[in-house]
Amino acid sequence: MHELSITQSLIEAVLDRIGERKVTAVNVQVGPLSGVLPDAMRFCFDVASAGTPLAGAQLMIDEPRGAARCRSCHEEFEVADLILLCPCGSADVEVLSGRELMLMSVEVA
Ligand SMILES: [Zn+2]
After folding, report:
1. What is the pTM of this model?
2. Tens digit of each residue's pLDDT (9 = 90 or more) over 14-55
3. How far is the CA of 84 from the centre of ligand 1 (A)?
4. Which distant-in-sequence residues (6+ apart) come within 8 Å of 88 by Cβ?
5. Confidence check: pLDDT of 88 > 70
6. How many whole angstroms separate alpha carbon 98 and alpha carbon 93?
7. Which residues surround ligand 1, an ion (CB under 5 A)?
8. How far is the CA of 97 from the centre of ligand 1 (A)?
């Protein structure tokens, strides 16, 4: 489960900047093409934050929609997973959004 190492890096990054202040919420953005499953990330966050100032903080995951544009028919379509296939059958697509994997903000007590 690579969500664990990603979540650990996220927690370390927050601890680096926040220090010992108590964190109440962490806001992240996880796109459907980021390769990270939000549910797995929530689970890993609870496990990896135990014993740190982030323990008990709420992980708020914003899940933006993924979008791509087909280079063959120039249609834009929504992508919900890593299968980038235009309804016209072409896989020659340009990803417009959905790869987000970002820490947006942290709320401290
Ligand atoms: Zn197409």
Report:
1. 0.85
2. 999 988 899 999 999 999 999 999 999 999 999 999 999 999
3. 10
4. 70, 72, 73, 75
5. yes
6. 13
7. 70, 72-73, 86, 88, 90
8. 17
